[in-house]
Amino acid sequence: MRLRMRNKSAMFHPMHLHGHAFQVRTQAGRGPRKDTVTVLPGRSLEVDFDADNPGQWLTHCHNVYHGEAGMMTIVSYVE
Ligand SMILES: [Cu+2]
Fold it and tell me: Regarding beta strands 44-48 and 22-26, do their DSSP bridges make them parallel or antiparallel, or are they unpaired?
């Protein structure tokens, strides 16, 4: 699966996906494997992960006050 995250704000957002590690896509190809990646202001990035853990997984900004303000959603899939 591929997630594309776009940061339209002027703030840094460390985005976290529960239940998986993902691989950050870079211009050079495959970047580091992580479970949290900072999306820079005005930038976007893509991450790939194996959909091998079916369920409902929270994904959110790790700045808690951002998550509480709404930067939180569910990634959900079945086997
Ligand atoms: Cu944030």
Answer: antiparallel
Residue with tokens 């896509």: 25
Q: Reading across the β-sheet that carries 44-48, which strands appear in turn? A: 2-6, 44-48, 22-26, 29-34
Q: How many whole angstroms separate alpha carbon 71 and alpha carbon 37?
A: 14
Give residue 13 CA to ligand 1 midpoint distance, Å: 4
What is the CATH class of 2-77? mainly beta
pTM over 0.85: yes
Rounded to the nearest whole angstrom, what is the distance from the C-alpha of residue 63 to the centroid of ligand 1? Answer: 5
- Cα–Cα distance for residue pair 17/12, rounded to 1 Å: 16
Structure tokens at 18: 């529960």
Lowest mean pLDDT among 8-12, 24-28, 38-42, 72-76: 24-28
